[in-house]
Amino acid sequence: MQGEIRIRDLCLHLGKGEQRFQALDHLNIQIPPGEFVCLLGPSGCGKSTLLGALAGHLSYSSGDLLVDNEIVHQPHPDRGLVFQHHTLFPWKSIIENIAFGLKMKGIPVKERLEKAKQMIDLVGLTGFEKKFPAELSGGMQQRVEIARVLINEPKVLLMDEPFGALDAQTRVHMQQLLLDIWQNIKTTVLFITHDIDEALYLSDRVLIMSHRPGRIIDEISLNFPRPRDIEIVTTPEFVELKKYCMQALKHDDLSNLKRLNPLGLPKKAVREG
User: Fold this and answer.
1) 257-264 contact pairs (CB < 8 A, 24+)
2) Cβ(78)–Cβ(29) below 8 Å
3) In this prediction, what percent of the chain has a pLDDT beyond 70?
4) CA trace torsion 248, 205, 172, 121 (10° rounding)
5) pLDDT tens digit string along 88-123?
6) DSSP classification of residue 76
7) Alpha-carbon distance 256 to 246, whole Å?
8) What is the pTM of this model?
9) Domains, the chain, with CATH or none
């Protein structure tokens, strides 16, 4: 499998002159191929900045940022990025939007349309091939966005609050859809969210970031069985984990935080760097 992410002592600054500030502070993260990791942290802590660096859109000041032992220094289809708001072309049909990446690679029309149809089936939009983005609901637009990224067969899927603008019911449907897709393709996922329930429900591991400059202050390994049912959010174990995350997000220093261990949380709360 491919899609290993290694981040070592990553520092990143933004802005120029007197406005320059440190966004990320000696960040260390290792994600094995196929793992689903959620990133939690307060607003402005550098979560989206980290995704921008991984996508190849932002330059970092020092440290190492590698995917499959290759240094990340520019965008690449192997690292697919999904935002909160879709970036679909409004003048193109759904199937044309999804096939666009293959068109840029020079793939023949018949082949790229056939693969686009497969992606449409995968995200549950069969019958909407000829529709335009404005004719779809927000959740359906995000399905198209995900399909457009997945058609390039990325090793790593970077998701920046992709369901944040959706209503609660649609959000749950999209979470389940994403898990179903991930179970099939097993690409590595780094998923940003402010929603603790979402992070605990989706991921294998939750990483918690400090206030700016961002660093990893804690990680929680989850062993809820897969495939998962939304009913797990009502279990005592889930509720305890949620309480812990809520406390962790309020404090950068976790040394005095009550430790919880209902699902094998790491005994050491603070993971420096």
Assistant:
1) 262/236, 262/237, 263/221, 263/222, 263/223, 263/224, 263/237, 264/221, 264/223
2) no
3) 91
4) 160
5) 999 999 999 999 989 888 899 999 999 999 999 999
6) -
7) 14
8) 0.89
9) 1-78+154-273 (3.40.50.300), 89-153 (no CATH)
